[in-house]
Design a protein that fits this description.
alpha+beta; five-stranded mixed sheet; 60s Ribosomal Protein L30, Chain: A; binds magnesium ion; single chain
Length: 162
């Protein structure tokens, strides 16, 4: 470990369901009758991971880099933000050692899509298999996620540089 700097980061995001949008989570289109509201694509899983990575590197947060009042980021895919942030970390000499995201959703059922999300986000970050892990949980019917009003996600990352 000598000579190596390691940093932990944590990110949280939530978006509400609205009619008339495609549901994008973890960089994957999930068939559902609603999508997530947001200036970009509302991908709470990708956004939580973006915030965790930026925070770990001491680069601020998503709102700073991709402000929601900037038309450049309208409808931007969460995986595109991830690719952008991966380049920022690379420029700082960091590599992603480990990333773990937990999504909170009562519906739709996300479990069948976790492998595809892992692949999409790993490709966006340019990391090998096993670095990105995703899980999903419910809140036993409690709160906004439990009522099916939206989706939340929490991400933890470990990054390192020599
Ligand atoms: Mg967001």
């Amino acid at each position: 470990m000598s000579g190596q700097t390691m940093r932990i980061g944590h990110g949280i995001d939530a978006h509400r369901f609205v009619n008339g949008r495609a549901l994008m989570l973890g960089g994957v289109h999930i068939p559902y009758d609603r999508g997530l509201m947001g200036h970009s694509d509302g991908d709470a899983i990708a956004h939580a991971l973006v915030d965790a990575l930026l925070g770990a590197a001491g680069l601020g947060d998503m709102g700073h880099h991709f402000p929601s009042n900037d038309p450049r980021w309208r409808d931007t895919a969460g995986v595109d933000f991830l690719g952008d942030v991966a380049r920022k970390l690379h420029d700082e000499g960091y590599s992603v050692v480990s990333a773990h995201v937990v999504a909170v959703a009562e519906e739709p059922r996300l479990f069948p899509h976790l492998d595809a999300m892992r692949t999409a986000m790993s490709q966006a970050l340019g990391v090998e298999d096993g670095v990105v892990q995703i899980g999903v949980t419910t809140t036993d019917g409690m709160g906004f996620a439990g009522r099916g009003e939206g989706v939340a996600a929490s991400a933890t990352v470990l990054i390192a540089r020599q």
